[in-house]
Design goal:
Blueprint: H1 2-9, H2 34-41, H3 47-50, E1 54-57, E2 66-69, E3 75-78, E4 86-93, H4 97-108, H5 115-126, E5 136-144, E6 159-165, H6 171-174, E7 185-188, E8 196-199
Parallel strand pairs: 1-3
Antiparallel strand pairs: 1-2, 3-4, 4-5, 5-6, 6-8, 7-8
Protein backbone atom coordinates (compact mmCIF):
# COMPACT_ATOMS: atom_id res chain seq x y z
CA UNK A 1 0.00 0.00 0.00
CA UNK A 2 1.51 3.34 -1.05
CA UNK A 3 0.58 5.25 2.11
CA UNK A 4 2.03 2.56 4.38
CA UNK A 5 5.28 2.57 2.43
CA UNK A 6 5.37 6.36 2.67
CA UNK A 7 5.02 6.30 6.46
CA UNK A 8 7.82 3.76 6.78
CA UNK A 9 10.00 5.95 4.60
CA UNK A 10 9.47 8.93 6.91
CA UNK A 11 11.92 7.37 9.36
CA UNK A 12 14.74 8.91 7.34
CA UNK A 13 13.07 12.28 6.65
CA UNK A 14 13.41 15.33 8.98
CA UNK A 15 10.10 16.30 10.65
CA UNK A 16 8.20 19.26 12.19
CA UNK A 17 4.83 20.94 12.74
CA UNK A 18 2.38 22.38 10.26
CA UNK A 19 2.15 26.19 10.42
CA UNK A 20 -1.38 27.48 10.43
CA UNK A 21 -2.55 29.25 7.27
CA UNK A 22 -4.52 32.43 8.04
CA UNK A 23 -8.04 32.78 6.72
CA UNK A 24 -7.44 35.89 4.62
CA UNK A 25 -4.34 37.21 2.84
CA UNK A 26 -3.19 40.70 3.72
CA UNK A 27 -4.75 43.37 1.52
CA UNK A 28 -1.24 44.60 0.69
CA UNK A 29 0.10 41.17 -0.24
CA UNK A 30 -0.41 39.66 -3.67
CA UNK A 31 -0.25 35.87 -4.05
CA UNK A 32 2.13 34.31 -6.54
CA UNK A 33 0.60 33.30 -9.88
CA UNK A 34 -1.47 30.15 -9.43
CA UNK A 35 0.90 27.95 -11.41
CA UNK A 36 3.76 29.01 -9.14
CA UNK A 37 1.70 28.46 -6.00
CA UNK A 38 0.93 24.93 -7.15
CA UNK A 39 4.52 24.17 -8.11
CA UNK A 40 5.81 25.41 -4.75
CA UNK A 41 3.10 23.79 -2.64
CA UNK A 42 3.74 20.25 -3.84
CA UNK A 43 7.52 20.41 -3.32
CA UNK A 44 7.45 18.82 0.18
CA UNK A 45 5.95 15.61 -1.23
CA UNK A 46 7.92 12.69 -2.66
CA UNK A 47 7.75 13.01 -6.45
CA UNK A 48 5.36 10.08 -6.93
CA UNK A 49 2.65 11.89 -4.91
CA UNK A 50 2.92 15.36 -6.45
CA UNK A 51 0.90 15.10 -9.66
CA UNK A 52 -2.23 13.78 -7.90
CA UNK A 53 -2.20 16.20 -4.92
CA UNK A 54 -4.94 18.74 -4.30
CA UNK A 55 -3.57 22.26 -3.80
CA UNK A 56 -5.21 25.01 -1.75
CA UNK A 57 -3.91 28.53 -2.28
CA UNK A 58 -4.78 32.18 -2.65
CA UNK A 59 -6.38 34.47 -5.21
CA UNK A 60 -6.14 38.25 -5.09
CA UNK A 61 -9.10 39.89 -3.30
CA UNK A 62 -10.59 36.45 -2.48
CA UNK A 63 -10.82 35.68 1.24
CA UNK A 64 -9.47 32.41 2.55
CA UNK A 65 -7.91 29.43 0.87
CA UNK A 66 -9.38 28.32 -2.45
CA UNK A 67 -8.84 25.18 -4.48
CA UNK A 68 -6.21 25.91 -7.11
CA UNK A 69 -5.88 22.31 -8.23
CA UNK A 70 -8.29 19.45 -7.59
CA UNK A 71 -6.37 16.20 -7.24
CA UNK A 72 -7.33 12.56 -6.88
CA UNK A 73 -4.43 11.51 -4.66
CA UNK A 74 -3.93 11.06 -0.93
CA UNK A 75 -2.52 14.49 -0.12
CA UNK A 76 -3.70 18.08 0.25
CA UNK A 77 -1.07 20.82 -0.06
CA UNK A 78 -1.24 24.42 1.17
CA UNK A 79 0.45 27.18 -0.83
CA UNK A 80 2.64 29.72 0.91
CA UNK A 81 0.71 32.58 2.55
CA UNK A 82 1.25 35.88 0.70
CA UNK A 83 0.86 37.76 3.99
CA UNK A 84 3.50 35.66 5.75
CA UNK A 85 7.03 36.74 6.58
CA UNK A 86 8.52 33.45 5.41
CA UNK A 87 8.08 30.79 2.77
CA UNK A 88 6.06 27.89 4.17
CA UNK A 89 4.28 25.13 2.27
CA UNK A 90 2.76 22.00 3.74
CA UNK A 91 1.18 18.78 2.50
CA UNK A 92 -0.87 16.46 4.70
CA UNK A 93 -2.85 13.27 4.25
CA UNK A 94 -6.50 13.81 3.29
CA UNK A 95 -7.66 12.12 6.49
CA UNK A 96 -6.35 15.16 8.42
CA UNK A 97 -8.38 17.71 6.44
CA UNK A 98 -11.36 17.97 8.86
CA UNK A 99 -8.95 18.71 11.73
CA UNK A 100 -6.87 21.19 9.75
CA UNK A 101 -9.89 22.94 8.23
CA UNK A 102 -11.53 23.26 11.65
CA UNK A 103 -8.39 24.89 13.02
CA UNK A 104 -8.36 27.42 10.21
CA UNK A 105 -12.04 28.19 10.75
CA UNK A 106 -11.61 28.69 14.49
CA UNK A 107 -8.67 31.05 14.02
CA UNK A 108 -10.59 33.00 11.38
CA UNK A 109 -13.43 33.46 13.89
CA UNK A 110 -11.04 34.84 16.52
CA UNK A 111 -10.23 31.76 18.60
CA UNK A 112 -6.60 32.00 19.70
CA UNK A 113 -3.74 29.92 21.04
CA UNK A 114 -4.40 26.73 22.94
CA UNK A 115 -8.15 27.35 22.87
CA UNK A 116 -8.16 26.15 19.25
CA UNK A 117 -7.07 22.70 20.38
CA UNK A 118 -9.35 22.78 23.42
CA UNK A 119 -12.31 23.14 21.06
CA UNK A 120 -11.05 20.61 18.54
CA UNK A 121 -10.21 17.97 21.14
CA UNK A 122 -13.67 18.30 22.69
CA UNK A 123 -15.27 17.93 19.27
CA UNK A 124 -13.17 14.84 18.51
CA UNK A 125 -14.19 13.30 21.84
CA UNK A 126 -17.87 13.99 21.16
CA UNK A 127 -17.64 12.57 17.64
CA UNK A 128 -18.45 15.90 16.01
CA UNK A 129 -14.98 16.25 14.43
CA UNK A 130 -13.30 13.41 12.55
CA UNK A 131 -9.66 12.53 13.18
CA UNK A 132 -7.76 9.56 11.71
CA UNK A 133 -7.30 6.58 14.01
CA UNK A 134 -4.24 5.36 12.14
CA UNK A 135 -0.98 7.11 11.20
CA UNK A 136 -1.22 10.15 8.92
CA UNK A 137 1.72 11.94 7.34
CA UNK A 138 2.53 15.64 7.04
CA UNK A 139 5.39 17.18 5.04
CA UNK A 140 6.55 20.81 5.15
CA UNK A 141 9.17 23.14 3.67
CA UNK A 142 10.03 26.36 5.51
CA UNK A 143 12.51 29.07 4.59
CA UNK A 144 13.01 32.79 4.10
CA UNK A 145 10.52 34.77 2.05
CA UNK A 146 11.17 34.36 -1.64
CA UNK A 147 12.67 30.89 -1.25
CA UNK A 148 10.80 29.50 -4.24
CA UNK A 149 12.55 30.02 -7.57
CA UNK A 150 9.96 29.76 -10.37
CA UNK A 151 12.68 29.47 -13.00
CA UNK A 152 13.97 26.22 -11.51
CA UNK A 153 10.86 25.10 -9.65
CA UNK A 154 12.91 24.61 -6.48
CA UNK A 155 13.23 26.13 -3.00
CA UNK A 156 16.85 25.43 -2.15
CA UNK A 157 16.90 27.66 0.95
CA UNK A 158 13.87 25.96 2.55
CA UNK A 159 14.28 23.17 5.09
CA UNK A 160 12.20 19.95 4.90
CA UNK A 161 10.35 18.93 8.07
CA UNK A 162 7.77 16.19 8.56
CA UNK A 163 5.40 14.64 11.09
CA UNK A 164 3.59 11.35 11.60
CA UNK A 165 0.30 11.86 13.47
CA UNK A 166 -0.72 8.93 15.69
CA UNK A 167 -3.74 9.93 17.76
CA UNK A 168 -3.31 9.25 21.48
CA UNK A 169 0.29 8.07 21.18
CA UNK A 170 2.47 8.35 24.29
CA UNK A 171 6.12 7.77 25.17
CA UNK A 172 5.10 4.40 26.60
CA UNK A 173 3.18 3.30 23.50
CA UNK A 174 5.88 4.42 21.08
CA UNK A 175 9.09 3.96 23.04
CA UNK A 176 9.97 7.59 22.23
CA UNK A 177 10.84 10.46 24.53
CA UNK A 178 8.72 13.60 24.80
CA UNK A 179 11.93 15.69 24.83
CA UNK A 180 13.30 17.09 21.55
CA UNK A 181 16.37 15.20 20.34
CA UNK A 182 18.09 16.58 17.22
CA UNK A 183 18.63 13.78 14.75
CA UNK A 184 16.32 11.34 16.54
CA UNK A 185 12.54 10.82 16.65
CA UNK A 186 10.55 12.16 19.58
CA UNK A 187 6.85 12.60 20.37
CA UNK A 188 4.95 15.89 20.67
CA UNK A 189 1.54 16.47 22.31
CA UNK A 190 1.60 12.93 23.76
CA UNK A 191 -1.73 11.45 24.79
CA UNK A 192 -3.76 13.96 22.79
CA UNK A 193 -5.68 13.47 19.53
CA UNK A 194 -2.91 15.30 17.65
CA UNK A 195 0.01 13.38 19.16
CA UNK A 196 2.70 13.12 16.53
CA UNK A 197 6.18 11.77 15.98
CA UNK A 198 8.83 14.32 15.07
CA UNK A 199 12.04 13.41 13.27
CA UNK A 200 14.21 16.47 13.72
CA UNK A 201 17.47 16.80 11.78
CA UNK A 202 20.73 17.73 13.42
CA UNK A 203 21.44 21.40 12.81
Amino acid sequence: MRTTNLLIGLAVVPCALLAQAPATPSAAAEPMPEAQQIAAAILPLPKEFRDDATVLGYRAKTPGLVTLKKGTGSFICLATDPAGHQFHVACYHRSLEPFMARGRALRASGTKGEQVDTVRFAEIKSGKLAFPKGPAALYTLTGPAGSFDPATGTAAAAKPLSVIYISGATPASTGLTAQPIPGAPWIMYPGTPKAHIMLVPKM
